[in-house]
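Re: folding output
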Amino acid sequence: MFQLILTTPEGRRFDAAQRVTTLSWSGSIRQVSRQVRFGLVLPRDGSLPAIPCEVGTAVQLLVDGESRFMGSIVTRERGTGEDTAEFTALDRGFYLAGNEGWFVFSGQTPEKAVQTVCQGFGIPVGQLAPTGVAVSRKYPGVALSRIVDSLYTLAAEQNGKRYLARFDGAGALDVVEKPTAAALEIAPGKNLQTLRVSEDISHLQNSVAIYTDSGQLVRTVEEAESVARYGSLQRVVTQRKNGDAGAEAKGILEDNGPQQVLTAECLGNPLLVTGSAVILRDNAAGAAGLCWIDADTHTWKNGQYFCRLTLNFKNKMNETTAGRENK
């Protein structure tokens, strides 16, 4: 069961759930904003009370009493003579992506730098994953979302971990370390309805050449089996002075190997969201094991709740390069 709370700028609250025709709540590792799309019955003849639904109206989605989304309406669409209207709401990632800033960080941890970025723009902060590394970077006029992702990408290159930026149900920014074990299971006869499997090597990188900034080859790291099977597809990285690019090279190989992407249709569960790890059990489809959710869409329609998930056997993050080195 869901509630859709619409709040006017003056503070008047309305639960519009009974007027919703269909509602979807979705997210992806490629976007910091989660979104809610919904249709509302809005008779033109006044047979039902008016409810606030202008662009900018605050939106909160609760599932089984727990807040899962807090944002505002950014698009509204309605046709001539129609008694329904369609809306899109984005969470506060809208402000992280829509604002640019100018920042210089010298020897700061990503979590401290992100705190500074958000404070400067009044963006609430929840949990920021500790990284154990220090970075130096200059961001002259860069979108805040790209700053956050690139700071944690720099950390991932050094510690080999994977991170995800997202906003929680109270509207605060969390940057979490993606799990390495699953607490959820997807299986036929339990919650899995259909599963589609696709394989792709169009973005394959199976060799990484590490060079110094003066152009001297330090070493080459490669997936020998992949090179023998598909041929060599090389990426070049520059090793920082007194540093070791081994973790970065390993991350590139892990993230750019042969892709096996799975699309699952499941019974609805609000815990099945982007960044979560799940155990997939479907031996009949030739796909089973530990997976990560790269994208999710939860849909409520005609009294039913189901979700569509994009799964990946590789633990990936939204790697972003932005700004320039601050020497």
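--- second protein (sequence, then structure) ---
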Amino acid sequence: MTTGKYEAVIGLEVHAELKTNTKAFCSCGLSFGAIPNSHVCPGCLGMPGTMPVLNRELVEYAIKTGLALNCKIAEYCRFDRKNYFYPDLPNGFQISQLDLPICTAGSLEIETQQGKKTIGINRVHMEEDAGKLVHQGNIMTTPYSLADLNRAGTPLLEIVSEPDMRSPQEARMYLEKLRSILLFLGVSDCRMEEGSLRCDANISIRPWGQEKLGTRAEIKNLNSFRALERAAEYEIKRQIEVLEEGGQLVQETRTWDEDRQVTLSMRSKEQAQDYRYFPDPDLTPIIIGQDWIERVRKTLPELPDQARERLIKEYNLPPYDANLLTMSKDVLDFFDGCVAEYKEPKAVANWVMGELTRLLNQNNMEIKDAKISPSSLAQMLKLLEQGTISGKIAKVVFEEMFATGESPDKIVKDRGLVQISDESAIKAIVEEVITGNPKVVEDFKNGKGKALGFLVGQVMKISKGKANPEMVNQLLKEELSRR
């Protein structure tokens, strides 16, 4: 992004909670939304004398993610202690990785308006999450905070990009692509609204053509694509205004205020040494042999870029459709399941990207939680193709399928939605509409094209959307030509 004489430079640090069966260093299970402090043990409560035991699944998920991001997998890596005090961190330190992370030197490709662009991945490292503070009361009732440590010890991957993004839009594309890869891998549910995928954005500006990076601000805990894009847009403008007014930027940590749509300063930026990192004495280094890496590589599923190319080549879908259908593994599986029964990929894509996506967004629902199945959509499209239902009625049937999970055949039968294709029945309605709208008929004769559309709409209204649209148009034109 170039604004006047300045260029924006953006890098993202993304935290992804992993879908392992247990926490990173103890046997407690994971459960979002569970009763507070019901998934804890002496280990994740930081009790004296407890020892961490590494979850092997965490390491395998990290290797799998690194391979999908074209990273170099370290043959030798270790855990470090990141020391700081906070009420939701019971040990007084976080187990993380500093000097020897498990994955380095990767890349991810995004599709911009100017073409494909490669974003570097500096590192992917493993760590544990902290707990959560629940703030109660207000200044009038003595505020206080409660600690819920269910989340303490949850396994995380921190994915750190290079500062290769040059606009808020590129940053959003990067995060969308990264999320889709993690979903395809099955390592995280990536529910941003629940905090299982969140990111910090490092943003700076520099004069156009300058190589040296400017003074950056870190925007913490952005948990939606929209928040990332808007926070970056605001922060870039803020930094430009500071410099244009003769001020000096300081390295700091800021937060995004969603209500006010502004970033606010939290604190001056801490340096790594402030955390007093040192190797964790209770965890041995991890040796990762090539045979282990190859075993994990064999488990890699079809990834978004591969799926996108398949949809374009095998189904002749436009790149735009292929991009949308590969944003989520669940969406792609739904599409593939429907195409397996109804061999018209473009028609299926239109319904998945259109009506299905609309209803999912409207109900704040994931596709895997919807009652509608790929098979039922295929059956409905067959009814539409056969002329049993009209396009307008198909939308009514689809909404009922989405709400109840019932088959389209049953819905059509129970609600009497079979399309009227009887010529005499449609002709009677056509004559009624023409007789009742002489002014519109006159407009049609005078060459006003919209008049025909109005008359078609009236016929469809009287028939409650059941009349065959092609027959309606044909019979209307025939009757109007006679008058």
